[in-house]
Amino acid sequence: MTSTRLYPGMRDGSLEIFYIKEENRLMAIKGGRVLGYEELPPEDTKFLDHIIDSEHATKEILEEWFPSRIEQKRKLAECRFGGLNFTPDYMNGTHAPDSFDCPLKDNCKGFGKVCKNIEYKGFPLAPFDEKAISLLISAKKNTVIAEELKIPLGSFEVYRTKLYNSLRISTKQELASVAFILGLI
């Protein structure tokens, strides 16, 4: 028996924003419809105004990058919520950042401010954790993974155990499920 997972916004009032890098398009799923970000009514993006107004560093960076509030909100939506996953970006007053494979991640002034680390069960995942998860669910051996992460094998073993404990999982299959839920695969 197979089961079908629906993205947030397909059957409920939640909002899922996602960026299609190949097409340079920001899209959204809301009310069972897939639409361009620009088609969202202003009330659906009001939470972005609240984020900008409540986070001083984010506001400063976005104002430096873009003079228009509309452009600021679009960039915030792209950077912080641009990944497509099974956790709603916004629902009932709560928002959750997504993993977004940005090529500028480590060289961007807005890194860690405009974009945010994703969380799983309250545990924030740093970019290193995201990379490690992607490698750990692959067919690669631990020695190769440790090399690719540029850490000694012993340190890798300790790190992997701490990561599994933090995510409250114990198997590679559970890690693959977490990666799927978070949109890392």
TrEMBL record:
Keywords: DNA-binding. GO terms for molecular function: DNA binding. This is DNA-binding response regulator.
